[in-house]
Amino acid sequence: xxxxxxxxxxxxxxxxxxxxxxxxxxxxxxxxxxxxxxxxxxxxxxxxxxxxxxxxxxxxxxxxxxxxxxxxxxxxxxxxxxxxxxxxxxxxxxxxxxxxxxxxxxxxxxxxxxxxxxxxxxxxxxxxxxxxxxxxxxxxxxxxxxxxxxxxxxxxxxxxxxxxxxxxxxxxxxxxxxxxxxxxxxxxxxxxxxxxxxxxxxxxxxxxxxxxxxxxxxxxxxxxxxxxxxxxxxxxxxxxxxxxxxxxxxxxxxxxxxxxxxxxxxxxxxxxxxxxxxxxxxxxxxxxxxxxxxxxxxxxxxxxxxxxxxxxxxxxxxxxxxxxxxxxxxxxxxxxxxxxxxxxxxxxxxxxxxxxxxxxxxxxxxxxxxxxxxxxxxxxxxxxxxxxxxxxxxxxxxxxxxxxxxxxxxxxxxxxxxxxxxxxxxxxxxxxxxxxxxxxxxxxxxxxxxxxxx
Length: 454
Description:
Layout: H1 7-12, E1 54-60, H2 64-70, H3 73-79, E2 83-89, H4 92-102, E3 109-113, H5 114-117, H6 128-131, H7 140-145, E4 147-148, E5 151-152, E6 155-156, E7 158-159, E8 162-167, H8 168-173, H9 184-197, E9 204-207, H10 210-223, H11 240-254, E10 258-261, H12 266-273, E11 279-283, H13 288-292, E12 301-305, E13 322-325, H14 333-345, H15 347-354, E14 368-369, H16 393-401, H17 421-430, H18 435-451
Parallel strand pairs: 1-2, 1-3, 9-10
Antiparallel strand pairs: 3-13, 4-5, 6-13, 7-14, 8-11, 8-12
Helix pairs in contact: 10-17, 11-18, 14-15, 17-18
């Protein structure tokens, strides 16, 4: 769900970012000892030829990231000169399902939101064997969201740690030191203090779009070590963790401490620019806003790790993300694996994606790699962000990524749950439901209308 990574991410954080909890960031390469080949015909095997050849068709969304990936093809061909890459801009959400069902003109590789991978596993290669040499060095959350009971179905792309963006200039003028915020209780106190100094302010962002509100809810839940679905795909919304998060959002709303608006809508931008909205708990890709959409306050914003729910708790959670999938009906999906292996696990590839390039002269700073050797805090791939006052966002984001607790796989019903949980969350902010009613009503609806009908 990663933005300005694509137009989709800018407007709607595509589907569900990152766990580095116990795995050290390391500059070493993967264990290249090859696993025994699987006898399962659904498990992809890498090409064995010394110089593989053929043509692959790769689908990406139109936008900035398409151009970034397009510009990596020449470097890929330096390594694999006999593989021709047919790179196509496609409305994936509109076209992929029918293409997979009919089996007509199926691409070899597809860029896909993490939240949608589980919906297509019947049509995708199990990538367990080809990923095995790298899996110990991939952010565990990204492996988890691409995992189903019988395999791994996505090649992890980005890591989208949640951060707290704040208007340092406005807060300093009001006498509020944001760097002292360590917990969500501290955030509430800071918002109250700012509102006392600036009575028109509603300092904390409250998301009004149901999909993004649910995505942000999962970021908060990830901090607490939970998610809507467990490892078996069972619903676990009815829990103390979700009750706590909803009560926090309800408090922000009831005390008038929140600006309720859709992400980067005209209303949202206006309240960010005029100093009424000064705290934005969101994925790293909010960095797009001060760089492109907030000319009046560009340079005033900073990023820090999210507050913890309890002192000493996790200071980040995953929010959004995408991966690459390989359809079984693709003509040369094994060759497409080599393309994605190059992009994600080869230094020349991931440096071309996140490092300075024609699209992003300072580097792609709206996400970080999910491959830990590429996300080395001491070896930044993108530079300091002028719109964040010259802040080293790479250091902040990689530190936050290391705080994210492990996650469970994204269940097939997650997107459908927006019609219930995402909408009920908005009804709570309207004053129609309380947190307990959101949990009980959404639990019943998701279980009855989605899970039981699978």
